[in-house]
């Protein structure tokens, strides 16, 4: 019989050999709550069901220990992958195949997933799921609505990143309805929604229980965790700076939804709190342009290069919960909002801004920026048609058309300028670093983007030189 010890599990061939080995007494080990929680969180539901089928003790361990099915990631379930691929060309199938007349669009696109859910419901598993990961699958807004509203679900953290067939407008309606001021107490159960980011890196299939046993699954996952922790660059927003989200279609309308859900449901995006938005703590405290409508923050920033802070206040790890973005991947060992928003390593505070709030005040090369208190870009100089928001002596906000007549505006020196189309707006030191004048033709070039150039000669002169050399 194979030796089964905690330290030497790689050689185990199947679940049965693991659980029948008297020396190991796996059952005793798993009865330790801490051990159990740390193991089951990394096992697919199919392995847990296999474990439960071994004998009565294991069955009661799996079905009667609270929280065994708390975390459920079925994004790689093989049957759903297959159906998702079929659904990709669904419109064609929709037209050509004689389908049941009563089949709704939602039935069609969320059918496979609903089938899995009804199976999990029959096995009394679905009710316990608090973190549900459906990334990349075919997930309709109606299904999300059921997960959020239906009493048979207890989902607190839901991940629907890069899902197919999702109507974002309908999902926003569901969320705004769930967070309406007149909502019943204790609702919604959902506390966190991952919808903006990219799904986590491809994982090995967690389906096919007949070909994968608990021990090999465990090995695979710990290896993956180790690899990712070794390659870990730190958490988005906290340890990485620059653009955190790529603006996608369907982004319109999400900012108002985030504001309506603020403090109730957290997202893997946050609102920009630049002074020009009415949701900003700094709104009205300084002249600002724009309509004041909320917008989603795209960029994570260090403090302002000029004053070392930001007008709206930097976002702190221990600060107001509603300002914190959900961090990827969704936490495995806990379904709490705190776990989903706490960076893994100690992190400095950051500022989060939308594109408009950084216009003309942000270097795309080194992510430095200058806040509204420290700097007004020349392009922002007030003219006759601009709206100015300011507080009067009584602290009352006034919005007025600013008349520039009689006001002499000294054009400030620009902190960022565009020397290279690809580099975009850059600060002086980045420009010094990347832009050169060719010693041969005197033309300007960028050492990052003019492929084939040298530190002294532009790409054109360099290639011409080579050509001449070969003659
Ligand atoms: Zn500043
Ligand atoms: Zn903004
Ligand atoms: Zn720079
Ligand atoms: Zn460049
Ligand atoms: Zn040249």
TrEMBL record:
SUPFAM superfamilies: F-box domain (SSF81383). Pfam families: F-box. Residues 31-62 form the F-box domain. It comes from the Eukaryota. This is F-box domain-containing protein. It comes from Emericellopsis atlantica. The lineage of its organism: Eukaryota, Fungi, Dikarya, Ascomycota, Pezizomycotina.
């Amino acid at each position: 019989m194979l030796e089964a010890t905690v330290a030497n599990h790689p050689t185990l061939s199947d679940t049965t050999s693991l659980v029948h080995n008297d020396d190991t007494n796996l059952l005793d080990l798993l009865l330790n709550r801490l051990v159990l929680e740390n193991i089951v969180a990394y096992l697919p539901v199919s392995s847990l069901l296999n474990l439960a089928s071994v004998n009565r003790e294991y069955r009661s361990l799996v079905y009667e220990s609270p929280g065994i099915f708390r975390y459920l990631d079925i994004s790689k379930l093989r049957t759903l992958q297959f159906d998702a691929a079929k659904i990709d060309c669904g419109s064609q199938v929709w037209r050509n195949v004689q389908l049941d007349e009563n089949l709704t669009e939602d039935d069609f696109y969320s059918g496979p997933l609903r089938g899995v859910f009804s199976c999990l419901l029959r096995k009394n598993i679905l009710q316990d799921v608090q973190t549900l990961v459906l990334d990349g699958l075919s997930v309709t807004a109606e299904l999300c609505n059921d997960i959020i509203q239906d009493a048979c679900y207890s989902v607190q953290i839901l991940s629907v990143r890069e899902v197919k067939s999702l109507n974002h407008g309908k999902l926003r309606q569901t969320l705004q309805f769930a967070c309406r001021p007149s909502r019943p107490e204790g609702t919604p159960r959902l506390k966190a929604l991952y919808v903006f980011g990219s799904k986590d890196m491809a994982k090995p299939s967690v389906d096919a229980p007949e070909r994968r046993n608990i021990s090999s699954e465990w090995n695979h996952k710990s290896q993956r965790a180790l690899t990712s922790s070794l390659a870990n660059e730190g958490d988005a927003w906290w340890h990485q700076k620059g653009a955190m989200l790529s603006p996608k279609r369907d982004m319109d309308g999400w900012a108002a939804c985030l504001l309506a859900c603020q403090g109730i449901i957290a997202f893997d995006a946050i609102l920009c709190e630049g002074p020009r938005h009415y949701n900003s703590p700094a709104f009205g405290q300084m002249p600002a342009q724009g309509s004041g409508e909320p917008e989603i923050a795209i960029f994570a920033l260090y403090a302002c290069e000029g004053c070392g802070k930001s007008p709206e206040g930097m976002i702190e790890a221990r600060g107001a919960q509603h300002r914190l973005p959900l961090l990827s991947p969704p936490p495995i060992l806990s379904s709490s909002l705190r776990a989903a928003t706490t960076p893994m390593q100690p992190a400095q505070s950051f500022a989060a801004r939308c594109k408009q709030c950084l216009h003309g005040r942000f270097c795309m090369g080194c992510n430095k920026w200058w806040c509204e208190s420290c700097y007004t870009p020349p392009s922002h100089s007030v003219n006759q048609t601009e709206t100015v928001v300011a507080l009067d002596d009584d602290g009352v906000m006034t919005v007025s058309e600013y008349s520039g007549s009689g006001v002499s505006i000294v054009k400030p020196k620009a902190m960022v300028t565009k020397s290279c189309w690809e580099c975009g707006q850059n600060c002086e030191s980045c420009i010094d670093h990347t832009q050169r004048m060719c010693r041969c033709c005197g033309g300007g070039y960028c050492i990052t983007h003019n492929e084939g150039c040298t530190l002294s000669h532009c790409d054109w002169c360099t290639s011409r030189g080579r050509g001449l050399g070969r003659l």
